[in-house]
Amino acid sequence: MVEEITKEFTHGLPKAELHVHIEGTLEPELKLKLAKRNHVNIGQSTIEEVKETLKFNNLASFLDVYYEAMNVLQTEQDFYDLAMDYLHRAAKNNVRHVEIFFDPQAHTSRGVAFADVINGLYRATVDARALNVDARLIMCFLRDFSRDSARETLEEALKYKDKILGVGLDSDEHNNPPMKFYNQFCKATEEGFHITAHADPDQPRSIEHIRDLLEVIGVERVDHGTNIVEDPDLVDYAVKNEIGLTSCTLSNNFLNADMKGKEVIELLGKGVKISIHSDDPAYFGGYIGDNYYTIATKFDLTRDQVIKLVKNSFESSWISDEQKALYLKEVDEYVAKH
Length: 338
Hints:
The chain has 338 residues and is of the alpha/beta class. It has 17 helices and 8 strands. The protein has helices at 7-12, 28-37, 47-52, 59-69, 76-92, 105-108, 114-127, 147-157, 182-190, 206-217, 232-240, 249-255, 261-269, 281-284, 288-298, 303-315, 321-337; strands at residues 15-21, 95-102, 134-142, 166-170, 194-199, 221-224, 244-247, 273-276. The protein has an 8-stranded parallel beta sheet. Strand 3 (134-142), helix 8 (147-157) and strand 4 form a beta-alpha-beta unit. Helix 5 runs parallel beside helix 7 and helix 16 (303-315) runs antiparallel to helix 17.
């Protein structure tokens, strides 16, 4: 008999969050607050009206809603408030370490200064220490923007190297393969940034994109990336090179009825460092603890499988071996008490 996994257990487990978009944590309450503060007419005046807008049926319609909501983010203080709102929720989910994605082009393209984005977010990561959360930032290129835009964004980011842990790639993958940004990734690596990239579930040429990310660009993690199961050789490569994969249960459910749970279990069993994260929790109905609880209960995961997923999150994070050892010890101590 499989031992029941409880919400208390999944929420209380010490964990690292490696796949969360800060813009995707904009809750209706904060959206309304910022709209009022910045005198932005969003066409909604109540929580219920905001929630009514959170309806989409494919990636394109989701991105339309997602980017429209960002119009309320105008000042450094807005970005600080956004990040702190998430970090308080992360602390309640016992997130001990988080590497937060942010999309500067989504803001600079509408006139917001890069400095306001990075300084607001970074100030929140500093204040997160009071919540017992170690927070870092990953700057992502928007893949549906041009190469030149990515190049200019990276050049701007170099002014803030001490505030940015790594560089990623997200947004609409269709007709925007990772090799479009090969030069920008090479430059990021030369500058000392860690690198990762999205390979969203079931996209056209997904396995080709994953192969390019691993064998040519040389990313350290693949965000989502569960289509790797289509190529056993790439799975072996990921195991051998300790490539992290970051699967997001609730957002996967939007695209795939089985949440990619079968693939997660298969990859976990083969030794891939796959872990569970929340992606855009304000849009998909749950933060990281909910994502762990959902996959654990829907797929009857054992405690050992859940614990391994959590340990993978620390092991594939971009922190020192000494920090990893301390967090893994916390996991063991928590499990021993529960």
